[in-house]
Amino acid sequence: MRYGIVIFPSKPVQDEINAYRKRYDPHYSLIPPHVTLKEAFDADDEEIDKLITEMKHIANKTDPFTINVNKVSTFAPVTNTIYLKVEPIQELFDLAETMQSGKFPENQTYSYVPHITIAQKLSQDEYSDVYGSLSMKNIQFEDKIDRFHLLYQLDNDVWTVYESFVFGKEYV
Amino acid sequence: MRYGIVIFPSKPVQDEINAYRKRYDPHYSLIPPHVTLKEAFDADDEEIDKLITEMKHIANKTDPFTINVNKVSTFAPVTNTIYLKVEPIQELFDLAETMQSGKFPENQTYSYVPHITIAQKLSQDEYSDVYGSLSMKNIQFEDKIDRFHLLYQLDNDVWTVYESFVFGKEYV
Fold this sequence. Notes:
Chain A is α+β, with helices and mostly antiparallel strands and 172 residues long. Chain A has helices spanning 11-24, 45-61, 90-98, 124-136, and strands at residues 2-7, 35-42, 65-74, 82-86, 115-119, 141-145, 147-153, 159-166. Chains A, B: This is Putative phosphoesterase AOX59_08315.
């Protein structure tokens, strides 16, 4: 099965971000707004059971933290994805890094950039328009994070949550 | 915020069910295939924290169980919803009942019928056609259940998972 690990911002933040994604992100209906910690990877049942134990340990070692978003950015020219830049904080890098080591498969191809995608797979013209208009907006928020989620992907590409990992609250 | 409590069947079962839902269920893109344990209810942050503790206790007291689906059924004439009938087993009734008592708000208006919706909000003509054709299909499966999920609803009506409760594995 194909899994991924993400952080979901709180409902008010998800609602605000979805207003943009609805227009510009074809993945809008496949997954709620999220910060990816680990990109999609394959694991069988036995492997994922071991990783779940790892994720519980990781969650127990992590304290709740605050994320901040202050600006819109883009991965262009690599891809024309437009995203909300999550201010880089050690907690996010630590989580992402831990999930590339030990029992976890290594599947990170670019250096880790914490972000929330709001537009992707646009034509070049659309991209320029949308990036221009989104850059002018004052999108700012802070949000308290106290958990991450393990998701798996269905055949229709929708991601479903398999398990939540609440910081300091997991029984191993 | 608006919450709900559901069981998600395993991925192979979800994929099979989605093949029907895609055509007949307008909620297809709002939530993966599920067995509702407790219909949508409202709770503030303080209330939901208390209920989460309750749900951990409930999960810890529940052993994994097997659900079986053997036939298609309908809520007509009350609504023209078509569903997969989940064979009634005590574990499901116990879970649903517990979530109507104690600190949980009582919000069950009909007697509890464990089911997985595959078609709803059809016109009367569509309903007759679809029910006729689905009734002829041999939809049968069994599935192991070891957890339930607490979801909340976003402004766009999509349900996101807030927390998973794995039977016998929750730290309270």
